Task: inverse folding
């Protein structure tokens, strides 16, 4: 399965889960925007980047690249997202049907890859575990900016719709 198909599956799964949870989901046409979806929260937009995780056999964990990939006919380039690109990332593990919901400030704080560990054999849970199935963060995303900012260190405020 190619990476574009995996991304489409992850986006479809995220849309379905968001709709089941009562969110109003907007799906931009094309792939020229730095985000994949938007949520309409009382007339304000919350921009969402969806990422598909893959199994890393070396680390026995699932991995997500925190960089964007740009390609043309000759080369592939990876670069960091900018703080104005999106408000939240939804990371999806297709094999387990599990989602991680992370504010941009947390997502962008990783080097190049986020490891999602789905076993309980570790003494200490990794930082990413705090964002497993954290759909409540999206509800608070624009409705209560102060509480979100206070609960997440170094958080960036989601931008208003333009």
Result:
């Amino acid at each position: 399965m190619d990476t574009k198909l995996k991304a489409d599956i992850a986006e479809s799964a995220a849309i379905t889960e968001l709709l089941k949870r009562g969110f109003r989901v907007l799906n931009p046409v094309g792939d020229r925007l730095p985000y994949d979806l938007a949520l309409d929260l009382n007339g304000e937009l919350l921009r969402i980047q969806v990422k598909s995780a893959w199994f890393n056999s070396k680390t026995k964990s699932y991995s997500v690249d925190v960089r964007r990939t740009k390609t043309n006919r000759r080369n592939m380039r990876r670069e960091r997202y900018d703080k104005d690109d999106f408000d939240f990332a939804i990371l999806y593990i297709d094999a387990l049907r599990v989602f991680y919901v992370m504010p941009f400030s947390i997502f962008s704080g990783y080097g190049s890859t986020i490891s999602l560990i789905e076993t309980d054999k570790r003494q200490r849970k990794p930082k990413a575990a705090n964002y497993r199935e954290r759909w409540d963060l999206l509800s608070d995303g624009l409705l209560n900016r102060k509480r979100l900012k206070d609960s997440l260190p170094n958080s960036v405020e989601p931008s208003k719709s333009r």
Remarks:
- The chain is about 25% helix and 30% strand.
- Helices lie at 3-20, 104-107, 136-143, 145-151.
